[in-house]
Amino acid sequence: MNAFPDNLPLPRRRMPAALRGTAALLVALAGAPAMADIYTVTTHTAGSTAAFNLPGLFPQADIVGSRAFDLTVTSVFDSADVLASADNNWMQATDATLQISLQLDGQLYTLDATGQVSSHILSDTDGTGRTTKRFYQSISFDPSTFGDLATIQQYVFLGADQFAIGSVLEPATAYYADPLTKGFSVFNWRSMPDDTLRLLGDGTGLAQRFDYHLAVAVPEPATYAMLGAGLALLAGAARRRTKAG
Q1: How much is the pTM?
Q2: Residue span of the structural domain in which 208 resides
Q3: Residue limits of the Ice-binding protein C-terminal domain (predicted)?
Q4: Which of 98, 124, 96, 93 is nearest to 111 (CA)?
Q5: In a domain, 235, yes or no
Q6: In a structure prediction context, what are the per-residue pLDDT tens digits for the chain, which is 245 residues long?
Q7: Residue 189 lies in a domain
Q8: Of the residues 7, 139, 184, 205, which has the fewest C-beta atoms closer than 10 A?
């Protein structure tokens, strides 16, 4: 006769403390969200003449008159905030950090804001069968100075063989000083009680120069190196504990 009941639970061997720490770390890593890429897009236009009527948009002073211009817009945003088309020829990002720099006849105007950035590439074929591409970079934000909504767009129309930007979310650098169309627009709006927008000021002009640069920052290799070193230390400690036991 068997003196021991058959339904007793089997004894469980506890996992060594170091291995428990390793397992906990791996579980935490498995549940952690993937590290997002950080995109930085810089778009620059410059020209000899542009028309401005922008009272109160920039904190430094009102901008009025016809003047030479040099406009740089930098947008920094997280890939987790990006909505894009399947071919990446259109994208929109929210909660972007925006830096605007506008130099007019030696006077510098700057503005920092948080808003939305969008980019898109369009292709058209004219009557002769020639394909032309258009690139647009647009930002929109609450100016917090005067008005309720401001938008800045910079654009360039180019022949397909001159277009160096394959998609709006791939690292690229482009520079164009050819005579094809390029330019910018700035609009500042006030929201009205009937949900319409009233134009408070604008600035528009054609550019002789267009520059575009997109860079992507990925997690640094040191981050992964530190993680690997930590796992190796935990595994070594577990082996030592097992031999000692």
Answers
A1: 0.75
A2: 38-217
A3: 217-241
A4: 98
A5: no
A6: 444 344 434 444 454 554 455 455 444 444 544 568 999 999 999 999 999 999 999 999 999 999 999 999 999 999 999 999 999 999 999 999 999 999 998 899 999 999 999 999 988 877 777 778 899 999 999 999 999 999 999 999 877 667 778 899 999 998 888 878 899 999 999 999 998 999 999 999 999 999 999 999 975 554 445 555 554 554 555 555 555 55
A7: yes
A8: 7
**DSSP letters spanning the chain:** --SS-TTPPPPPPPPPHHHHHHHHHHHHHHHSPPPPPEEEEEEEEEEEEEEEEETTSSSS--EEEEEEEEEEEEEEEEGGGEEE-TTSSEEEEEEEEEEEEEEETTEEEEEEEEEEEEEEEEEEE-TTS-EEEEEEEEEEE--SSSSSEEEEEEEEEEEGGG---S-TTS-EEEEE-SSS-EEEEEEEEEE-TTS-EEEEEEEEEE-SEEEEEEEEE---HHHHHHHHHHHHHHHHHHHHHHHH-
226 within a domain of the structure (yes/no): no
